[in-house]
Amino acid sequence: MALLDKVPGDLNLYIGGLFTLRRREALAQANITHVVSVLRLPLDKDLFAPFTHHVVQVDDVDDENLLEHFPQTNRFIQDGLDRNGGVLVHCAMGKSRSATVVIAYLMHKYHISPAEALEQVRLARPICEPNEGFMKQLNVYHRMNMTDNVDESPEYQRWLYQREVELSRACGQAPEADKIRFEDEHIREAQAELELRSLLLVLPIPAGPVPEALASPPPPRPPLLFTVGSPSFSES
Q1: What is the pLDDT of residues 72-83, one digit of tens each?
Q2: What class does CATH assign to 4-130?
Q3: Domain layout of the chain by residue ranges
Q4: Which residues are catalytic?
Q5: Dmax over Cα atoms in the chain, in whole Å?
Q6: CA distance 104 to 84
Q7: Residue 32 contacts by C-beta under 8 Å, 6 or more apart in sequence?
Q8: Care to name a GO molecular-function term for this sequence (predicted)?
């Protein structure tokens, strides 16, 4: 393992730590043109002056939302590669946050699972180990089929709600009312959809044309002249 490790395959994609940026000769040899910084630290602008730079300000903690940034980081990485450049993704140590971003990109590009993508990244950098919260987010991303429209995904909204509940519980507070209503509505919609699917499975589907008697509405019934219990009419 070096300070700058290339992800296996044909992609000019690298992963490393913050100190990688001081190895100018190694960066030049790798033709690094784009850099993704995944950390919440004051950064020396002079270090990044030669590169197209994208910053994702997150901490390496379980409850940090890195999933919402995947579409942007995927596009940035792909843009750098499409320009025949090299892309470096780094965090502080090149272990958790940067690994998560690279794994998400590989999942999106090759439609593979988090475990498969992590295996590829570890071939280049064995210390890569996304924290538990990031691994959960990668699994959610996989269940979302790596969609580019993260915010509109019900799977993502469900994860956000569960995250809000866990954070509120940790702080000794109740979750916000609008989030509770959202989850209730989501459950009702899911139940209604399930009931509709069950009904469609039970209803028989006619093999041929519908008989005319069934296709046409029945003729209107004549109005009742009297009801049960009313006095009968006698002949005069």
Answers
A1: 999 999 999 999
A2: alpha beta
A3: 4-130
A4: 91
A5: 121
A6: 21
A7: 14, 51, 85, 86, 87, 88
A8: protein tyrosine phosphatase activity
Torsion sign (Cα): 10, 16, 21, 24: negative
Residue 151 tokens read as 């915010």
In whole angstroms, give the CA distance from residue 103 to residue 91: 14
Q: Are 142 and 117 in contact (CB under 8 A)?
A: no
3-state secondary structure the chain: CCCEEECCCCCCEEEECHHHHHCHHHHHHCCEEEEEEECCCCCCHHHHCCCEEEEECCCCCCCCCCHHHHHHHHHHHHHHHHCCCEEEEECCCCCCHHHHHHHHHHHHHHCCCHHHHHHHHHHHCCCCCCCHHHHHHHHHHHHCCCCCCHHHCHHHHHHHHHHHHHHHHHHCCCCCHHHHHHHHHHHHHHHHHHHHHHHHHHCCCCCCCCCHHHHCCCCCCCCCCCCCCCCCCCCC
* Burial (0-12, 13-18, 19+ Cβ within 10 Å), 88: buried
Mean pLDDT (the chain) is 84
CA atoms of 166 and 125, how far apart (whole Å): 32
Q: List, for residues 81-106, the tens digit of each pLDDT value.
A: 999 999 999 999 999 999 999 999 99
Nearest in space to 127 (alpha carbons), one of 80, 181, 91: 91
Selection from 67, 224, 207 nearest residue 149 by Cα: 67
What are 21's two structure tokens?
């940026």
The pLDDT tens digits for 157-215 are: 999 998 888 777 767 766 555 554 455 555 555 565 666 666 666 555 555 565 555 55
Going by C-beta distance under 8 Å and a sequence separation of 6 or more, which residues neighbour residue 165?
175
